[in-house]
Automatic annotation (TrEMBL):
InterPro entries: ATPase_NBD, Hexokinase, Hexokinase_C, Hexokinase_N. PANTHER family: HEXOKINASE (PTHR19443), HEXOKINASE-4 (PTHR19443:SF6). Belongs to the hexokinase family. Residues 41-240 form the Hexokinase N-terminal domain. One of its GO terms (molecular function) is D-glucose binding. It holds the Pfam family Hexokinase_1. CDD domains: ASKHA_NBD_HK_plant. GO terms for biological process: glycolytic process; intracellular glucose homeostasis. It comes from Fraxinus pennsylvanica. One of its GO terms (cellular component) is mitochondrion. Pathway: Carbohydrate metabolism; hexose metabolism; Carbohydrate degradation; glycolysis; D-glyceraldehyde 3-phosphate and glycerone phosphate from D-glucose: step 1/4. Signal peptide: none annotated. It is an enzyme of class 2 (transferase). This is Phosphotransferase.
Length: 510
């Protein structure tokens, strides 16, 4: 070998060493970065942990806060609002009633035919439309004009198909799923907006009046004779079908619960008299807060960036509006540590781009190579081809976030049961033989509505599992969670019907 040959050989060897060391260096860096990402995951898991002991603390805190909210106005973050609904539909309601359901992503109009016998909802027709984004942050007049116009279209369309007599005035139940201080069963003042709605001029105004005025502006002959929260509609339908229904929970874009309370337990309204002795209380549990809630830095950032910081803390950990965004924030944090997600996607910085239904699809992807996950990451976040181990990581993040949400919702439900003595501690017959008395625990039904619960199997499974863990194997079978499809809307029609037939106002507010 000549000199040149030697030089060449040495050069090649040096180049090979450089390439090898670059590759090794890259592998080492990648390994370190991967370890950092795993640390992010571990921290998330620790931060979101909901062992049953912690859930029991949440149960206790919920029932204590419920009590505090019933004792005095502002006594708790739970508003515990009076609904003026004290008699749930009896089953004798008859006729055709209309309902408007506003509160989530969609706005629905319903016509419900009641046959006058329990469980005789002869039929209902629903028209659902998305609420245009600009109306959620515009003026009240724009929003209500849109609603009234949609209602007019609906009525005109059905005039061709139904035998409604034009001389008959239509009766309307309005489900308005935001915190409202009711002034009667058909009127109330908006306290604040939630779920991304911000229409300043509406706060402090009577919601029914705004709707009634818009209806008149459109020349419709319709009377708003029930104003309800979606939880109350769901409870009404639940109770209509099954008298053991004592509470209702919404797990959808937002979250909330209501339940049947004894009027004399509503201490802040001393002397409140109702014929039934009860009153449905709208808890507005989305605003529940307790130091026992497992909160992470992602929750804090989400809250700080929201239009309503320090508000609706429970809702921001649980409901469909927020879960996808928590996952997005975790992925963003991971992508800062590691280039596994490819060049950092600018889409990942867009709030709410990863909606909860997409998150649920990723979480429930059962293809062996997690094809759906890859597709959503590509189509929504514009990530390039993502390796399988990273797809698995994303699924794990979805799992942690959803598991926490579902378990906290379960703790909230048991908190209500505890408050009304239906968690097995107060609602059982006393006696020496605990096993025998436990079997006498009263059947208790909780009506549930909302896409998060109905469309997201793993959320539902986690919730049911946590209910059993908290209540125990013996008590849990007595508590039945029942899905009420369209409960909030049908419930408004049912309550409109029962208000139109009950002639005397049987509530006395001191
Ligand atoms: C509202 C509640 C409503 C719940 C579910 C919350 O954001 O404050 O009034 O019941 O969402 O729709």
């Amino acid at each position: 070998m000549g000199k040149l040959g030697v030089k060449l050989a040495v050069g090649c060897a040096v180049a090979a060493c450089v390439v090898a060391s670059v590759m090794v260096g890259r592998r080492v860096r990648r390994k370190r970065a991967w370890r950092r990402v795993m640390r992010v995951l571990e921290e998330l898991e620790e931060g979101c942990a909901t062992p049953v002991e912690r859930l029991r603390q949440v149960v206790d805190a919920m029932s204590v806060e419920m009590h505090a909210g019933l004792v005095s106005e502002g006594g708790s973050k739970l508003k515990m609002l009076l609904t003026f609904v004290h008699n749930l539909p009896s089953g004798s309601e008859k006729g055709t009633y209309y309902a408007l359901d506003l509160g989530g992503t969609n706005f629905r109009i319903l016509r419900v035919q009641l046959g006058g016998q329990r469980s005789a909802i002869i039929g209902h027709y629903v028209d659902s439309r998305p609420i245009p984004q600009h109306l959620m942050t515009g003026t009240s007049e724009e929003l209500f004009d849109f609603i009234a116009l949609s209602l007019k279209d609906f009525v005109e369309m059905e005039e061709n198909i139904s035998e409604h007599s034009p001389s008959e005035r239509r009766e309307l139940g309005f489900t308005f799923s935001f915190p409202v201080k009711q002034t009667s069963s058909s009127s109330g003042i908006l306290i604040k907006w939630t779920k991304g709605f911000v229409i300043e001029d509406m706060v402090g105004r009577d919601v029914s009046e705004c709707l009634q005025q818009a209806i008149s502006r459109k020349g419709l002959d319709m009377r708003v004779n029930a104003l309800i929260n979606d939880t109350v509609g769901t409870l009404a339908v639940g109770h209509y079908h099954d008298e053991d229904t004592v509470a209702a929970v919404i797990l959808g874009t937002g979250t909330n619960a209501c339940y049947l309370e004894r009027a004399d337990a509503i201490i802040k309204c001393q002397g409140l008299l109702t014929t039934s002795g009860d009153m449905v209380v709208n808890m507005e549990w989305g605003n529940f807060w307790s130091a026992h809630l497992p909160r992470t830095s992602y929750d804090m950032d989400l809250d700080a960036d929201s239009p309503n910081p320090y508000d609706q803390g429970f809702e921001k950990m649980i409901s469909g509006m927020y879960l996808g965004d928590i996952v997005r924030r975790v992925i963003l944090r991971m992508s800062e540590e590691l280039d596994v997600f490819g060049p950092e996607s600018s889409k990942l910085h867009v709030p709410f781009i990863l909606r909860t239904p997409l998150m649920a699809t990723m979480h429930e992807d059962d293809t062996p190579d997690l094809r759906e996950v890859a597709k959503i990451l590509r189509d929504t976040l514009e990530f390039p081809e993502i390796p399988l181990n990273v797809r698995k990581l994303v699924v794990r993040v979805c799992d942690v976030v959803t598991c926490r949400a579902a378990r906290l919702a379960a703790a909230g439900i048991v908190g209500i049961l505890k408050k009304i003595g239906r968690d097995g501690s107060g609602g059982i017959a006393s006696g020496k033989n605990e096993g025998a008395s436990r079997s006498k625990m009263r059947r208790t039904v909780v009506a549930v509505e909302g896409g998060l619960f109905t469309n997201y199997t793993l959320f539902r499974e986690y919730l049911n599992e946590a209910m059993t863990q908290i209540l125990g194997e013996e008590i849990a079978p007595s508590v039945i969670i029942k899905v009420m499809e369209d409960g909030s809307g049908i419930g408004a029609a049912l309550l409109a019907a029962s208000h139109s037939t009950s002639s005397v106002d049987t509530i006395q507010i001191p």
